[in-house]
Amino acid sequence: MRISTLIGLSLIASAYMPARAYTVYPVPQHIELTGKHITPSSAINIVTSDHISENTLDRLKEVIADAGFSCSVSTTPADGATDIYIGVYGSGDSADRYAAARTFDTSIFPARNGGYDPHIVAIDTDDDMGSILILGD
Of 130, 111, 114, which Cα lies nearest the Cα of 122? Predict the structure, then answer.
């Protein structure tokens, strides 16, 4: 699986550290800003599966630590914590099920074209701490 961790992690970092300016490469094809905000918990829970490489998890942990947060890794969401769901479209893992339950537009995945690496990065503001989705191909 290939997930463009640079884009996803840059967007996550920008959500945690709004005072910094970030340039995201490659340029996202679609961005929706709702004007809503989250206040992440001091301990972030990474919800992952065996579809995600250790390198990807290590990079995500590094970005979270650089933003001043601690984190844990599990296969299920945690009560009272900001959850980051990271997974693969069509795998049935937690991130894939989360995206399906929230009706995120996943139409980009079946249309994969050549060297593109489609993915969704979304911040769900259903609660004050929010949840973050990184779903790749």
Answer: 130
